[in-house]
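Forwarding the complex inputs:
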Amino acid sequence: DTEVTQTPKHLVMGMTNKKSLKCEQHMGHRAMYWYKQKAKKPPELMFVYSYEKLSINESVPSRFSPECPNSSLLNLHLHALQPEDSALYLCASSQADSRNGYTFGSGTRLTVV
Amino acid sequence: AQSVSQHNHHVILSEAASLELGCNYSYGGTVNLFWYVQYPGQHLQLLLKYFSGDPLVKGIKGFEAEFIKSKFSFNLRKPSVQWSDTAEYFCAVNPTSGTYKYIFGTGTRLKVLA
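Prediction (whole assembly, two chains):
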C-alpha cells in the first residue's frame, strides 16, 4: 500500500458544527502532516507529528485540533470554524528521514458556511 | 526568514517545446530539495528530489533538475513537453537541521497546448 487515504473528500459544515477529518497510511511512515491549501496557493504547514507526538504546530488557531491515535492514523478535529477556513486540507506522511519526500493524500475540500 | 521563490507563475508552451521552471531559496544551511506536481483534480505527487551527490537529478516522466549551490537554485527542466504535462508545479525546500518542515514555493501553472 503506497497511498495516503483521506476522508471525507468533501465536507460542508456550519460555523457551530464539530467535525473531524481523517487520514490513514500503511507505509510504516513515522511522520505525518496536515497542510492547508487555498486556491492557487502553495500548501501551508499546520501540524507535524513525529512518532505519534506533536512536533510542530505552526501557530494554528485552537479551533483546529490534531490527534494521532497511532502510527497509521491522523485526525484533525474542527470546531467553530470561520468561512475563511474553507480550503483543501491535505494530509501527508513521510519516513522518519523526511529527505525522501512526502506522500500526499488527495485532500478534503472543506467549505464553512 | 526562509523562503522559496518560483519566478514563473504561469507558463504556456506548445507540445515538444523545452521547459525550464525556476526555483530559488533563501536558507544558509544544508537543504533537501524537491519538485512536486499537481495535475488538475489530483493530489500532489513527488517528481524528483535532491539531498546529496550528483547535482543533476532525474525524476519521473522525463523531468530533471539541477542544484546549483552557489545560486541557491534548483531549476526543473524537460527537453520536450507533452499536453499531459499540464499541471501546477511546486518547488519545496526542507532544511536538514532536524526539522520535518517543508517550505513550498508559490507554484508555477503550466499549460501545454496540443
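The mean pLDDT of chain B is 92.
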